[in-house]
Design a protein that fits this description.
Blueprint lengths: L1 E10 L2 E11 L4 E6 L5 H9 L6 E6 L2 E2 L10 E5 L10 H11 L4 H14 L15 H13 L5 E5 L7 H18 L3 E5 L2 H7 L2 E6 L2 E6 L1 H6 L4 H6 L4 E10 L2 E5 L2 E6 L11 E6 L4 E4 L8 E8 L4 E7 L2 E7 L8 E6 L4 E5 L4
Parallel strand pairs: 3-8, 3-9, 6-7, 7-8
Antiparallel strand pairs: 1-2, 1-4, 4-5, 9-10, 11-12, 11-14, 12-13, 14-20, 15-19, 16-17, 16-19, 17-18
Helix pairs in contact: 2-3, 2-4, 3-4
């Protein structure tokens, strides 16, 4: 098990990592999620031993890694730039790290074969890497990182150079490969969908601090701040005022909403709160008028669902619908209280 304790790192006099702690258990994939500049990649390099921290400790089980050089940590690294050797075949690229360890030839061949089988490239072993697509190169780089059988695998934006369609396909392959290998992993990304798909546990970084961590569904269902909600794609935010606490009832531009026991926060009558409406939390019903009307601003088809932009009072809201709506039309709607998150209003 990896244990990172109270890591501190400064950059140009400003704090980049502010007492960061995390643990990675056996067979677990932990995703570090945050915007550019939040310190994700720097933390990865510190764990690998490529950079030094100004404070904190890193342990593998009971071993302090402070004096352990990079090549003796037995951690695998995979970056966005695959850095494959163009003059080598796929198998020769995968074998490179093993050759540097001066392992016997038969052991190298066995480890290369196992790694290529894991990423489903066995039949292409002798092909030149210059003939590969971006997705295939990504698989070769992953096989090279897995071949030495590292005790920890670290991936820094491994799909960042690929187009969206290919990324959507390969992220599921990565998930399968990591789980089949059983190797614990740290996966760095700024993409929420990647994190949801691949992570057993997510850690959100903002301004050098871990602002929330937990299983992907837990974070989505219960963000602890407006920043977390917005970063996770929950952008339908509006204000409300608590009128009752038992049960919890809030008055808002969407009318009076009875939230019941769905909120885990404690509020006082008269308190101003922030309400987060999930995209599936407002159902459009043209035939059902509630006294309030929503005006359709835009309707975009995005696969199985339509993404609808609409206006209620002075609020712009985005929802999902299985049916199309004409821009400019008006419709009734029904609110799903269990799809609303109630948070203390953020202080300026």
């Amino acid at each position: 098990m990896l244990s990172v304790r109270q890591i501190v790192k400064y950059y140009d006099g400003d704090i980049l990592l502010d007492h960061i702690s995390l643990e990675v258990a056996q067979h677990e994939t932990v995703c570090l999620l945050g915007a550019s500049g939040s310190g994700k990649s720097t933390l990865l390099k510190i764990i690998a031993g490529l950079e030094e921290a100004e404070g904190g400790q890193i342990f593998w089980q009971d071993q302090n890694l402070a004096d352990t050089p990079v090549h003796k940590r037995n951690f695998g690294l995979m970056f966005q730039e695959y850095a494959l050797f163009p003059h080598r075949s796929i198998a020769q690229n995968v074998a490179f790290g093993l050759e540097m360890q001066k392992l016997p030839k038969e052991i190298i061949q066995k480890k290369v074969a196992d790694a290529l089988d894991l990423v489903e490239l066995t039949q292409f072993a002798q092909r030149s890497v210059t003939d590969l697509s971006g997705g295939e190169k990504q698989r070769v780089a992953l096989a090279r990182a897995l071949a030495p059988q590292p005790r920890l695998l670290m991936l820094d934006e491994p799909l960042g150079a690929l187009d969206r369609g290919l990324r959507d396909q390969l992220i599921f392959d990565l998930r399968r490969i990591l789980r089949k290998s059983g190797i614990p992993a740290i996966y760095v990304t700024h993409d929420q969908e990647e994190a949801y798909t691949i992570a057993d546990r997510m850690m959100l970084l903002n301004e050098g601090k871990v602002v929330q961590s937990g299983k992907p569904q837990q974070l989505y269902e219960n963000p602890q701040s407006e920043w977390v909600a917005e970063f996770l794609g929950l952008t339908n935010r509006f204000s409300g005022k608590v009128t009752s606490v038992s049960p919890l009832v809030v008055n808002s531009a969407l009318g009076q909403i009875a939230l019941g026991a769905c909120s885990k926060n404690k509020f006082q009558p008269g308190e101003q709160v922030s309400l987060i409406l999930k995209p599936a939390g407002l159902i459009l019903k043209p035939e059902h008028w509630t006294g309030q009307k929503a005006q359709i601003l835009d309707c975009v088809f995005s696969g199985e669902m339509y993404r609808i932009s609409l206006k209620i009072e002075d609020m712009n809201i985005k929802v999902l619908s299985r049916k199309p709506f004409e821009a400019g039309s008006k419709t009734g709607y029904e609110i799903q209280p269990d799809a609303i998150i109630c948070l203390p209003e953020a202080k300026e």
